[in-house]
Amino acid sequence: MSLNDAAKTGTARPSEKGRGFSQHMNELSLFAAILLLYVVFGSLANGFLSFNNQINILRDAATIGIAAWAATLIIIAGEIDVSVGPMVAFISVVLAFFLQWGVPTLPAFALAIVVGAALGSIPGILRAHFDVPSFVGTLGMWSALRGTALFVTDALPVSIGRNDIVDALDRSILGVPPAAIIMLVLFAVFAFVSRKTAFGRSVFAIGGNPQAAFLSGINVARIRVALFAIAGAMAAISGILLLSRLGSGNATAASGLEFDVIAAVVVGGTALSGGRGSMLGTLLGVLVITLIGNGLVLLGINPFFQQVVRGLIIVVAVLANIQAIKRSRG
Question: Total structural domains in the chain?
């Protein structure tokens, strides 16, 4: 296989079988971890297995998952996005203002998604055309979006009043929250795109070796911009669902969401160095992170200690990733 062929298919090394095996092992381990979490929290936390709590788990998973699908592609491409939380909160505020100003609900949703994609593309442009590291670009967006949202709202919720369409987004369908349905539909779309399209293969190629991908004819700059624009659009969808859940736009909402998203992606087996990962792994990672957060709350664990647990999860997941990559190369 030539270098060009390798870049086009996202298989830059003949050790891809080893990587695939380690990825499947990671997914099986996550399945086992989810079952273990249900057994432990079901035994220790009152109400964990109740129907209402399972609905809450699905809603929380959707908040993380919708943003995590786009974050998976970004990290596979060797980049990072730390602006997710403020982006979600900012879009919820923008959408609330649109509705207050009398913009019809569905066009307001569309405008919110366009605003999210436009804002998301900014760090992508900085990365693609000015070689600004994605961490720096998205960190700048994190600060700018959070500060702007707090400034225009005085840190107060922006009420939208009665809205049947917004209310319907938080009303269960046959016991399933619409947010969970949207999350799973988007999961199917991203899983297909990542594995069955030229765009998805290009993302893997860029993460594996951006220089080789460029030499093979892949427009690296355009794909990087597109990835961050897609991430902004997904954050906007999460912002819409957040508005429907809270009944208002809130600049202080979604605090720390970016860490849960990154943790879910890394726990799911996506390599922070790029070129390796899967949507199924991220889905399982989302469930693990959501179950741990939900179970710790029901057990009455101190919220500050919950942050310690999340940090440990990220560190352990990164160490596991590094070991998996070493085994696949060996």
Answer: 1
C-alpha separations of 216 from 163, 212, 237, 297 in Å: 51, 6, 34, 50
pLDDT of residue 16: 54
Torsions phi, psi of 265, nearest 5? Answer: -65, -45
pLDDT tens digits along 84-111: 999 999 999 999 999 999 999 999 999 9
Domain that holds residue 157: 3-329
Token pair listed for 122:
């900014």
Residue 195, φ and ψ in degrees, nearest 5:
-115, -20
Contacts of 10 (CB under 8 A, 6+ apart): 200, 201, 202, 203, 204, 205, 208, 275
The top-scoring range by mean pLDDT among 118-127, 293-302, 312-321 is 118-127
pLDDT band, residue 293 (cuts 50/70/90): very high
Tell me which H or E stretch contains 46.
none
Whole-Å CA distances, 119 to 72, 90, 204, 227, 312 = 19, 10, 24, 12, 31
CATH of the domain at 294: 1.10.3470
Q: How far apart are CA 91 and CA 93, in angstroms?
A: 5
Q: Which two tokens stand for residue 64?
A: 């993380």
Residue where the block lists tokens 């057990």: 299
DSSP assignment of 174-240 equals: TTB-HHHHHHHHHHHHHHHHHHHSHHHHHHHHHHH-HHHHHHTT--HHHHHHHHHHHHHHHHHHHHH
Q: 272: which 2 tokens?
A: 């922070």
